[in-house]
Amino acid sequence: MHEMALCEGIVEIVEQEARKGAFAKVKTVWLEIGALSHVAPVALRFCFEAVTAKTLLQGATLEIIEQPGAAWCLGCSRSVEISQRYQPCPACGSHQLQVTGGEDMRVKELEVE
Fold it and tell me: Where does Zn(2+) bind (predicted)?
């Protein structure tokens, strides 16, 4: 379960932003998670509550925005949406896909006090 380490990273990022932005409490964290990022949103929510206890994120709401996976198909020369790696192109059935998006996880926005 690497989601615990990911949540610790989120806390570090937010604490750095708190020092820059001079805020003391976070009410909501919006997090973008790509479909190909290997992050389980359910596990992330569970770990978020545990990791944020006694931090400026304690009690904060975690809003997850799921992003689709994207790939360039070498077979039909088009950008296609994919839900997992190694699946065939939904347009032509080729397996020659180059992933172009949906691998990331990032803190998109914070609501602070």
Answer: 73, 76, 89, 92
Q: Which residues are annotated as a binding site for Zn(2+)?
A: 73, 76, 89, 92
Cite the annotated binding site for Ni(2+) by residue number.
2
CB atoms < 10 A from the CB of 18, how many? 18
Please state the residue numbers annotated as binding site. Answer: 2, 73, 76, 89, 92
Where does the chain show beta strands of DSSP type E?
Answer: 26-34, 61-67, 69-73, 78-82, 97-101, 105-112
SS3 14: helix
pLDDT tens figures, 72-86: 999 999 999 999 999
pLDDT tens sequence across 2-44: 899 999 999 999 999 999 988 999 999 999 999 999 999 999 9
Q: Which residues of 24-57 are buried (b: 16+ CB within 10 A; e: fewer)?
A: eebeebebbbbbbbebeeeebeebbeebbeeebb
